[in-house]
Amino acid sequence: MPTTHAPRKRRRPRLADPLATWRAFSGQAMIERAQVALVHGQVAAAITAFSQGHDCLHHWRLLADAFNVAESLAALRIGSDAESRERIARAQQVLAAVYQRWQLRASWTLHAAELNALREAEWLHHIQLQYATLSEFERACVNTAERLQQARAGNAPAGAIVLGTGAPPP
Length: 170
What we know:
Blueprint: H1 20-26, H2 33-52, H3 56-75, H4 82-105, H5 112-131, H6 134-152
């Protein structure tokens, strides 16, 4: 056997990352119940305050964001049946109609049927959050942000309702 080969280097074990397994599975972990309850509570409180006429612009924006995320979750096949998609679309149409009424008459008034549509979409969004993983929820938030950015840049899909991005006066 020739002696020209260099001897093998001694194996030095690397320190194992104790969080590697946790990092791998954390994306597949379900959203914690406390977080789901917090988000659901915020959306429900926003609907209540919005229907009572308190800080309507802030609550309108919160609801628009929540229902846009619900739409993105439906695109990821969480609560994506036809009836669920219709609930989300109705809630978004209600928000668009209320916003347009506000621009015309400076009134945030909600009709009973509109309030019911918002509550149904809120119920669906709560169900979606219970069955979404952390990575799916994050992906839905990123997709929503990208979709809004595209719409504001003038690249909205056909049939989309893009509302003014400027803040109306208080």
